[in-house]
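We modelled the chain as a single entity of 119 amino acids. Its sequence is:
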Amino acid sequence: MSSLQWWSVIDVALLIAGLAIYLFIVGSQLKKVAANLEESAELVWAIKNDAELIEPGLTSINTTGRVVAGALPLLYGMGEGIVNGATFVHADHEADGVNRPAMGVRRTRMIEAMGVDID
């Protein structure tokens, strides 16, 4: 055999080995995906079973919601009446100024750099 034939055989062998390694890696990743999908399917079935237990109570919940929604305008009107009767009357008292900390005004270079005069 000539050297060209040997190199061709070596190239084909390396190609087959590379493809085998690639398929092994892809196969292991697909096994992980399949395991995750199986776990997800179990969770979905558990959620479905829980939802089936809740379903009969939904009619009661919807009926109660309709009753509450129907009573909201009446409750709103009653609340407005309560608020109007108990409204706070503000005295004509104005604040004597801005509250300052007991230690005085904190001075920083940032305020001075922005050109703010706090006096």
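As a brief sanity check on the tokenised model: Residues 3-85 form one domain. Residues 3-54 form the longest helix (52 residues).
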